[in-house]
Amino acid sequence: MLDRTAKLKTYQTYIDGRWIDATSGKTFETCDPYTGQPWALIPECDKVDVDQAVDAASRAFERGPWPKMTPSARGKIMRRIAQLIEQHAEHLGQVEVRDNGKLISEMVAQTKYMPEWFYYYGGLADKIQGTVVAVDRPNHFNYILREPVGVCAFITPWNSPLMLTTWKLAPALAAGCTVVIKPSEYTSASLLEFVKLVIAESGLPPGVVNVVTGYGALVGEPLVTHPRVAKVAFTGGSTTGARVNELAAKTFKKVSLELGGKSPNIVFDDCIVDDAVSGAVSGIFAATGQTCIAGSRLLLQETIHDRFVEKLVDMAKTAKLGDPALAETQVGPVTTPPQYQKILSYIDIAKSEGAKCVLGGGAAPQEEGGGQYFVKPTIFTGVTNKMRIAQEEVFGPVLSVIKFKDEDEAIEIANDIAYGLGAGVWTQSLKRAHTMAGRIKAGTVWINTYRAVSFLMPFGGYKASGLGRENGVEAIDGYLQSKSVWINNGPGGGNPFIMKTAS
Ligand code: NAD
After folding, report:
1. Residue 40 gets which letter from DSSP?
2. Is 256 exposed, middle or buried (0-12, 13-18, 19+ CB in 10 A)?
3. Whole-structure pTM over 0.70, yes or no?
4. Ligand 1 center from residue 240 Cα (angstroms)
5. What gap in Å lies between CA 190 and CA 216, rounded to an integer?
6. Is the beta carbon of 244 within 6 A of some atom in ligand 1?
7. Quick count: other Cβ atoms within 10 Å of Cβ 497?
8. Which of the 8 DSSP states describes residue 427?
9. In 3-state terms, what secondary structure has residue 381?
């Protein structure tokens, strides 16, 4: 149970292994989305703090022991990080519930799963291997080194702060990079607790992990444009992602972007209906719909439409709204006031576009303890794929149901969108499952399941849903660069005025 009576907690930020206030001395409040009340103060950093953090990360990279350490030794420290997360998983989950209003049941499951990333990439650290190339010249010995890219900047959103930091931090550390992390201004507390309980106790040298808290324009932009940052790993909205990409391009940084989505959850009439109903609910109402992979467009085959909608409404209307800190709660509050307003405005837009509201359709104020940012689980039928409610990311518990005739039409609707993050397909036909998986333009396709993630499976978007992949073996490539080494063991000579080619 959360103690909501304690007085405002004050956090510091973490630069070069030291806990410090923002240089300006300023702080800002972070709120508990359930009560709507502030519960902690976060340092309001600016460019001066960004410069200090990048200096620290840069020193740690150029002169510190971390990149020079044997990869096996790095792996050991990462396994220590994993063990420390295991010890503090409950507490970290509770802080995240307090700060972003996610359900305790989901949060503790997430924080208990996070160590796997550090075990996995810790194990991978000493399996990063270069290659010897039998080059097309006599007397040459050529090899390719794989080196860490350098200082990495991580910018994260408010909806899953710790998990999304983990996806970046584990491969970056394994590669030998140093990092500066900017969490969302709405949810900085869990990262600061993570750094205090895990990072600062793990044996990582000072300056390898640094944190700058604050606003996007004042902290995010100086970080993205800093000349000594080599790579930006960003998770957030597509508009911000485009801006980050543009700014980073000016200094030729490597960039990975995990952005928004409007994922189709496609139900065929040959599915196991109860499973698909549960998958549709999980796709849109879990985490109050505030997930990038929300299955916010439910595509129903017309032959199953009416009976499916009936079952879906029956299940969704039983969802228990309430305090996210209670185990029995199924739908928590919206995390931020602007997001709450945005969701309500999209409900109005859907109504004005002529969609039919068959469940919810507005705010759901809670009686006890505040609970002011609640939205009723909402389902719209009669949606066409051209409507704004079908094309734009709402990031809330609002589902658009769209009818289709056959596989071809399902694919046409599914792919007729700017995004391409995830997709669900519900069918018992093996042939159809594989065909759909091949034809959908999205980074992840779930067949007869939804919202499953693993450290082992690459995650990322097609189209406006992003660039690059997190998780799995390939994620580490984003934190490495190749260096070609040529050694001539034979005589020199040849014409010095022309390029040395094979012929
Ligand atoms: P956001 O884009 O508003 O903010 C994300 C981060 O960027 C925050 O830390 C913010 O302070 C920072 N930021 C804002 N302006 C910036 C600027 N000009 N320069 C640098 N940094 C800046 O996103 P949000 O509202 O926090 O999160 C919700 C969005 O994130 C949704 O669109 C969701 O789909 C997306 N998301 C994507 C994934 C994924 O893996 N694809 C996961 C979670 C969330």
Report:
1. E
2. buried
3. yes
4. 6
5. 18
6. yes
7. 5
8. -
9. strand
Give the Å distances, CA to CA, from 137 to 26, 143, 190, 354. Answer: 62, 13, 55, 70
Catalytic residues: 258, 292
Check whether 367 has a pLDDT greater than 80. no
User: Is the CB of residue 298 below 6 angstroms from any atom belonging to ligand 1?
Assistant: no
Predicted local confidence at residue 479, as pLDDT: 98
Q: What is the 3-state secondary structure (H, E, C) of 233-271?
A: EEECCHHHHHHHHHHHHCCCCEEEEECCCCCEEEECCCC
Residue type, 12: Q
How far is the centre of ligand 1, averaged over its atoms, from the C-alpha of 187 (Å)? 12
Tokens describing residue 495: 């014409």
Q: What does the mean pLDDT of the chain come to?
A: 96
Between CA 480 and CA 486, with CA 481 as vertex, the angle to 5 degrees is: 135
- Give the closest residue (by CA) to ligand 1 atom 31: 237
**Using the 8-state DSSP alphabet, how is residue 204 labeled?**
P
Can you tell me the distance from the alpha carbon of 444 to that of 421, in angstroms, rounded to the nearest whole number? 6
How far from 161 is each of 94, 328, 391, CA to CA, in Å? 13, 23, 26
Residues 6 or more apart in contact with residue 206 via CB below 8 angstroms:
16, 17, 18, 56, 60, 64
d(CA 464, ligand 1 centre) in Å: 13
Neighbours of 34 (CB within 10 A): 27
E-strand spans in 64-220?
131-133, 140-148, 151-155, 178-182, 209-211
Q: What is the pLDDT of residues 443-489, one digit of tens each?
A: 999 999 999 999 999 999 999 999 999 999 999 999 999 999 999 99
Q: Is 305 in the pocket of ligand 1 (CB under 6 A)?
A: no
Give the Cα separation of 461 and 400 in Å (integer): 21
Sign of CA dihedral 149, 469, 485, 67: positive
Q: Say how far residue 460 (Cα) sits from the centre of its chain.
A: 9
Residue-wise pLDDT for 16-52, tens only, equals 999 999 999 999 999 999 999 999 999 999 999 999 9
